[in-house]
Amino acid sequence: MAVVPVEDIPSTPSVRRLSILGSTGSIGTQTLEIVRLFPDRFRVVALVANSNVALLAEQAKAFRPEFVVIAREDCEEAMVAALQGTGIEVRCGEDAVHEAAVAGETVIAAMVGFAGLKPVLAAVRAGRTVALANKETLVVAGELLVREAKANEATVLPLDSEHSAIFQCLVGEPMERVDRLILTASGGPFRTWPAERFPTITKRDALKHPNWSMGAKVTIDSASLMNKGLEVIEACWLFDLGPDRVDVLVHPQSIVHSMVEFVDGSTKAQLGVPDMKVPIQYALTYPDRWPAPHKRLDWASIRALDFEQPDLERFPALGLAFDALEAGGTMPATLNAANEAAVQLFLDDRIRFMDIPAAVASAMSRDAGGDPLNLDALAQADAMARRHVLELHSAQVN
User: Given a cut of 50, is residue 59 above it in pLDDT?
Assistant: First the structure.
């Protein structure tokens, strides 16, 4: 795809202009921590948030972007008031998000969900370098994004820890020498729970991730293993491999972030503490590595690195993702939208945890098989899936 070899990208310029889409989320805030480490190497030109006026205002005052965007129009007045007298321009709405997506040389795409798709396409069509944390973009529209990136000579760099690990293992290696990719999964909080306990899972249980600190939606996806399923779909598009060459292993320590197995039987792995700052910095500074005070592994304290096959009976969401990838068309868009809608219902205490994959499977059975290169068809599949999930559970309350 547009994840390009080292020799195709020049060394990092003295100052790199950044647009951060989703600056108030987990990835966005950690990206700004990296910027703080290298104030002379980065210039933040645009910050985008959905509705968190207070934090966006705090970030704007600290990093002095050319403008900020608050996506929700009902938050515009409060945003203007929060930045009054600073000289920082406030913009609002979808068009303004797209403007931010093309304002910087490098775009951190960290908006959650389907809403992140159009801004990423705008950045790619403008030939920007996109550090992609919004996994839904590749899940929903991987074929379209690949086509647009190639046509516009844009660069898409993986920012998720698993895909960054694979990317780092592939540096200097021709893809024809790759046998398979192995994505690792922590297994989430229910890895050791027997199936009979799953009906008792509560929202509080599901939000207790054992290793990572993430937003609520991603944490629920991790608990169901849907997050790993979405990453499988991403990996196939990022690295141009079929689903038969991408595997998943549960690795509860979250130290091995992913692996690449080569045709000669050798395997490369990228290891580190479970912290997103290293993959974020690698995407921002690629192809360079800059010294940074990020936490190191204490090798003497590591007693074991365990691996096991995922249990698809207890975690059917992972299997659904492979099914969607095999089906192609608009099926991945349907999978993603149904999951987003079902996760929100779970977070709103309207359905149970195991209703999430059941709702996704039901929506997938209704997918009409639209054109994956047609944005309208993808949007229709997305809307259909959300509507179906809401109708399915309109009367159900826990």
Answer: yes
Share of the chain above pLDDT 70, in %: 95
Concatenated DSSP letters for 264-293? Answer: TS-EEEEE--S-THHHHHHHHHTT------
Q: Is the dihedral of CA 220, 191, 231, 55 positive or negative?
A: positive
Count of all residues that appear for the chain in the document: 398
The torsion of the CA quartet 108, 97, 338, 165, rounded to 10 degrees, works out to -10
∠ CA 152-158-159, nearest 5°, is 130
CA distance linking residue 249 with residue 311, whole number of Å: 10
CB 70 within 8 A of CB 76: yes
pTM of the model: 0.90
What are phi and psi for residue 344, nearest 5 degrees? -65, -40
pLDDT > 80? residue 100: yes
The helix/strand/coil state of 344 is: helix
Token couple for 55: 């934090």
CB atoms within 10 A of CB 191: 18
| β strands within 204-273, DSSP E | 246-250, 256-262, 267-271
Whether the CB-CB separation of 8 and 39 falls below 8 Å is answered with no
Extract the tokens encoding 140: 């929903």
SS3 of 57, please?
helix
Query: What's the one-letter identity of residue 249?
Result: L
Which residue carries 């889409």 as its tokens?
21
Q: Which strands form 155-158's sheet, in the order they lie side by side?
A: 89-92, 67-70, 42-49, 16-21, 106-109, 129-132, 155-158
Q: Is residue 111 helix, strand or coil?
A: coil
Mean pLDDT on 154-168? 95
Could you count the other beta carbons within 10 Å of the beta carbon of residue 138? Answer: 28
The predicted structure's pLDDT at residue 218: 86
- Which tokens belong to 90? 């406030």
Q: At what angle do helices 226-239 and 161-170 cross, to 10 degrees?
A: 30
- What is the CB neighbour count within 10 angstroms for residue 51? 13
